[in-house]
Specification:
3 domains, HD/PDEase_dom, DUF3391, 5-stranded antiparallel β-sheet, 15 helices, phosphoric diester hydrolase activity, Hypothetical protein af1432, 41% helix, HDIG domain protein, HD_GYP_dom, 4-stranded antiparallel β-sheet, alpha+beta, globular, 412 residues
Length: 412
């Protein structure tokens, strides 16, 4: 029998069936567990959750009649950082920029870095690497953009064309790594190293035939073996020059490892996977599944996040939680349904409010007709997101225009 109780009525011996609230807010790795220690009980009651469902068949009931007050929302606590992250020095405050101001800068940046990204790939095909200074300069530009507005560059770079995926993927992962590093509180030096890892993690794919990488149909066994060898090929190439940080070499070699040990090439698992490598795994997969490929249509940003959350055995959960907080549960560009029965596109996020972004409503499901686009801040008022929607039936260019040029009136 399941029972809904206020968080302050929880006690040792209860079996938690479900915590009611955002997944990114609760501090436990498991979704169902028995409260067996005072530390777990204290962690639960300090989590910011206000309601918990318990299973009376597997644990004890409340000691006395449960509280009759209606639980009220509370701010989510900060993410418990991995030891390697907690020890890092927090970066100095940055000067923020507005979305549209940074969007113009980010577009110019992407135009400028495309030749460098392409040359990085071309040189690697020949068994060479571009000068380290070129890579460092690119990372510096990425960091500056992320520091001015963390959401802009990582959103725009997702719009790369399918035929540019192979080389722009490295730029996208680099931007995501810097943004994730900032979310985790890494130092400037560590964020730069994270950006470099993102830029170079897939360099071994330059040594794989393009007809295999871009094959529209299933790979043969021999082709799959070839593709799975790209981490070792990249690691060998980066090792040959001698100036690549050890953490970047490890990210290149092990970014396809999984938390459960079922990845490749070495089957490394859990805490044996370095923090920077765990970060690279999350950023690499997100960009891969949310980008158009020659053989696959992109999943929407929100669907990509939802699927990654469901793949619990793949990723370090603390790193994934930080990544979700960085992009939001509904990343910019996501198509969502509101409680007011309107469709909207997510256009911007508020730090610390992953489920309440700013959206641009454009269609009434009640009338079945379009409405004048209106900008809505979901932290205010009564409207809220009830689900993400499949953008497939909609004109993607028109959806993109809704968040790329968000100058609609503001809802009260």
């Amino acid at each position: 029998m399941l029972k809904r109780i206020a968080i302050e009525d929880a006690r040792l011996g209860m079996h938690v069936h479900r915590l009611e609230g955002d997944w990114v807010s609760h501090p436990f790795w498991r979704s169902q567990f028995t409260l067996e220690s005072a530390a777990d009980l204290e962690k639960l009651q300090a989590s910011g959750m206000r309601v918990v469902w318990i299973d009376l068949a597997k644990g004890v009931d409340v000691a006395e009649p449960a509280s009759t007050h209606t639980p009220t929302p509370a701010p989510a606590p900060a993410l418990a950082e991995p030891p390697a992250v907690a020890a890092a020095q927090a970066p100095a405050p940055r000067t923020p920029a507005g979305w549209h101001e940074e969007q113009a800068r980010a577009r110019r940046l992407l135009d400028a870095v495309r030749p460098t990204a392409q040359r990085l790939l071309d040189e690697a095909r020949l068994g060479r690497l571009v000068e380290r200074g070129e890579a460092d300069q690119l990372i510096g530009q990425v960091m500056a953009s992320v520091d001015r507005h963390p959401g802009v560059l990582v959103t725009l770079v997702r719009l790369k064309q399918a035929d540019a995926y192979t080389y722009m993927h490295s730029v996208a992962v680099s931007a995501l790594m810097v943004a994730l590093g900032r979310q985790l509180g890494l130092t400037d030096a560590s964020c730069a190293e994270a950006g470099l890892a993102g830029l170079l993690h897939d360099i071994g794919k330059a040594r794989i035939a393009p007809e295999i990488l871009n094959k529209p149909g299933p790979l043969t066994t021999e082709e799959w073996v070839e593709v799975r060898d790209h981490p070792r090929r990249g690691h060998a190439l980066l090792s040959s020059r001698g100036d690549t940080p050890a953490s970047v070499l490890d990210a290149c070699l092990h970014h396809h490892e999984r938390a459960d040990g079922q990845g490749y090439p070495d089957g490394v698992a859990g805490e044996d996977i370095a923090l920077l490598t765990r970060m690279t795994s999350v950023c690499d997969v997100y960009d891969a599944i949310s980008s158009d490929r020659p053989y696959k249509r992109a999943w929407s940003p929100a669907e990509s996040i939802a699927r990654m959350v469901a793949w619990k055995s793949h990723f370090d959960q603390d790193v994934l939680k930080a990544f979700v907080r960085c992009l939001g549960i509904y990343p910019v560009g996501s198509l969502v349904r509101l409680a007011s029965q309107r469709l909207a596109v997510v256009v911007e996020h508020h730090p610390g409010h992953p489920a309440a972004p700013i959206v641009r409503a454009f269609f009434s499901l009640g009338s079945g007709h379009g409405i004048p686009p209106v900008r809505i801040d979901l932290r205010r008022g009564r409207d809220r997101i009830v689900s993400h929607e499949d953008p497939g039936p909609w004109d993607r260019d028109r959806l993109q225009a809704l968040w790329l040029d968000d100058r609609s009136p503001v809802s009260a």
